[in-house]
Amino acid sequence: MSKTFLILGALNTLLCIALGAFGAHGLKRMLSADMLSVYHTAVQYHFYHAFGIIIIGLLLLHFPKSRLMTISGWLMMVGIVLFSFSLYALSITEMRGLGMITPFGGVSFLTAWALLAYAIWADK
């Protein structure tokens, strides 16, 4: 499972760089300042959690049987999809209803980090 999260983390980081560059160069003139800020937030949290997934992949080398760390990694992936991708879509389409999905991603992120801390503390 460690290798899976290392690959997912690396691919998500690659995607962050591509989406960040696209936002900075391709969307700069197309989006309002407000929507560009929303897009930037999506990239920023995407980056944080791509690195979080890499950290989990590395931790799983030391805790290979940790079910809780594995769940934490998948929750970070779910969070990226629900939080960042809903904000990417919201910023480009300005469909405000997409913002209703974003908090579920935020809860996924919070749960993932809490679960990771518990897994390390409890050695589970």
Ordered list of secondary-structure elements with their pairings:
Layout: H1 2-26, H2 33-62, H3 67-93, H4 102-122
Helix pairs in contact: 1-2, 2-3, 3-4
Structural account:
This protein has 124 residues and is an all-alpha fold. The protein has one domain. It is built from four helices and no strands. Helix 1 runs antiparallel to helix 2. The protein is elongated. It starts with a helix and ends with a helix.
Summarize this structure briefly:
With 124 residues, the chain is mainly α. It has helices at residues 2-26, 33-62, 67-93, 102-122.
Q: Helix coverage percent of residues?
A: over 70%
| Straight-line N-to-C gap | 15 Å
Globally, the shape reads elongated
Sheet of most strands: none
Q: Give the tally of β-strands.
A: 0
Quick check: average pLDDT?
A: 94
Beta content: under 5%
The assigned structural class equals mainly alpha
Helical stretch count? 4
Run of helices and strands: HHHH
Low-confidence stretches: none
What's the number of domains? 1
Oligomer: single chain
Cα radius of gyration in angstroms: 15 Å
